[in-house]
Specification:
Blueprint (H helix, E strand, L loop, with lengths): L1 H24 L2 H28 L12 H36 L3 E5 L5 E4 L1 H6 L18 H9 L6 E4 L7 E9 L3 E8 L1 H38 L5 H32 L5 E3 L1 H10 L11 E5 L4 E4 L1 H17 L7 E8 L2 E7 L34 H11 L3 E7 L3 E8 L4 E2 L1
Parallel strand pairs: 7-9
Antiparallel strand pairs: 1-2, 1-5, 3-4, 4-5, 6-8, 8-13, 9-10, 10-12, 11-12
Helix pairs in contact: 1-2, 6-7, 7-10, 8-9, 9-10
Length: 425
């Protein structure tokens, strides 16, 4: 501001001097016009010098001048120096980022607009088969797996995908994309071959053990039923022991059946047909012996006639588990509501009870295998702890999602939402 005041003061003091000289000489207007032209010419000259200096990038020292233009040059010079320091700092950070990602064991690729490769680390060259000269190429032209191309185009990167390495089909990669910056994305590919092998070994072990247990359990149950038929009731201890043995044998059979169901869901191909869901729900709700004292407790509402494209046996298992849980975890005199309806284009199967409810901290974990929330509240309700895990896997195979609303002491509402493309005629 000080320089501006000085410039204005000089201009104001110059005007009276010019006016007096013009008045005495009798040439007031020509003198004022000449002074104005000189002032304009000086400013145009300064603007020209400034444009020339800026056009060269503001490099080197700024031109020697006085007044307001000296301040303008100085401020621009400071801004240029500050910008230079920021660029230097950013370059250093970028180099550190590249060194860091270059040392990562996981593949990292920076994608720009139109899926163009901007940069890739050494691991990406190794497991994705990219070359240093691929910079500027579109990655779908180099990695052509249909699942990867669909994932890239979807722009929905909340979940990753699993695919084989383009270099070695024996290597399994977990690929995930993270968006950042203005149109930039970071593609990460992790070698999960060992994890997948261990997972396959676990599945095979569970399947083999479950198959091996089924036969001896069937034999034990048969002999126990025979012994119970032969029991004349003379020994209450023997009768009680046989009943307990039979109950535990049945519990083991249910556990084996659930484990085999989970194994089938994880390993077998889907057998897709158009399932008449309303008829299936009528069958499930009319089944006897689902839960002890369950007669008359189910209220079925069929607000939609929609059918689902899927596996009938898997859907039956999921729906039966949800209905059975609602009956088990609510009092014997309460009603369980079962609904089939459409909402916003999706088809919904809903089971609502007025049972013991689920604590908020348990809700995210109830679909885990063998997780029993009731055990935390002192409840000993029969079950394998696999029912909701089966429900989760069935819904995943049918593009559905499970929503749980529950409150301790007031009941729960489990709803399965199926997308519109699953409806069939």
């Amino acid at each position: 501001m000080g320089v501006w005041k000085r410039e204005i003061t000089i201009a104001l003091l110059s005007l009276p001097a010019i006016a007096i000289a013009g008045f005495l000489s009798g040439h007031l207007l020509p003198l004022l016009l000449a002074a104005t032209l000189i002032f304009l010419f000086r400013q145009i000259q300064q603007i020209s010098r400034f444009e020339y200096w800026i056009g060269r990038g503001g490099k080197g020292d700024y031109p020697n001048t006085k007044g307001i233009w000296e301040d303008i040059y100085y401020h621009v010079y400071r801004l240029k120096k500050s910008e230079k320091r920021r660029k230097k700092k950013l370059r250093k950070l970028l180099e550190q980022f590249r060194e860091f990602t270059g040392a990562l064991p996981d593949a990292a690729v920076i994608l720009g607009q139109d899926d163009v490769i901007e940069w890739a680390n050494k691991a990406a060259l190794k497991v994705l088969g990219l070359q240093p000269g691929d910079k500027g190429q579109r990655i779908p032209n180099l990695i052509r797996y249909p699942e990867f191309v669909r994932y890239l185009k979807s722009r929905d990167y909340r979940d990753g995908i699993i695919l084989p390495s383009p270099v070695n089909g024996q290597i399994t990669l977990a690929v995930r994309i993270v968006s950042y910056g203005a149109g930039l994305r970071l593609l990460l590919a992790q070698d999960v071959t060992q994890l997948k092998q261990m997972e396959r070994m676990r599945k095979d072990f569970v399947a083999n053990v479950s198959h091996e247990l089924r036969t001896p359990l069937t034999v034990l149950k048969g002999y126990l039923e025979t012994l119970q038929d032969m029991d004349d009731g003379s020994s209450p201890l023997l009768a009680g022991s046989l009943e307990q043995m039979r109950g535990q044998t049945e519990r083991m059979q249910h556990l084996v059946d659930d484990l085999l169901m989970l194994t089938r869901l994880e390993t077998q191909q889907r057998r897709t047909v158009c399932v008449d869901v309303p008829a299936l729900l009528k069958q499930i709700c009319n089944e006897r012996g689902m839960v002890e004292n369950s007669a008359g407790r189910l209220e079925l509402v069929l607000a939609s006639a929609a059918n689902l494209d899927g596996d009938e046996q898997e859907l039956r298992s999921a729906f039966t588990n949800l209905v059975g849980n609602a009956l088990k975890y609510s009092s014997a005199d309460s009603v369980v509501k079962v609904r089939w309806f459409e909402e916003g284009g999706t088809v919904v199967f809903e089971v609502e009870d007025r049972g013991i409810g689920i604590a908020p901290e348990d809700i995210p974990r109830v679909t885990e295998r063998f997780y029993r929330a009731d055990s935390l509240h002192g409840r000993k309700i029969p079950g394998t702890g696999l029912g909701l895990a089966i429900v989760k896997h069935v819904l995943m195979r049918h593009d559905g999602r499970l929503n749980i609303i529950s409150e301790l002491g007031k009941g729960s509402c489990f709803s399965c939402h199926f997308p519109p493309h699953r409806k069939c005629d």
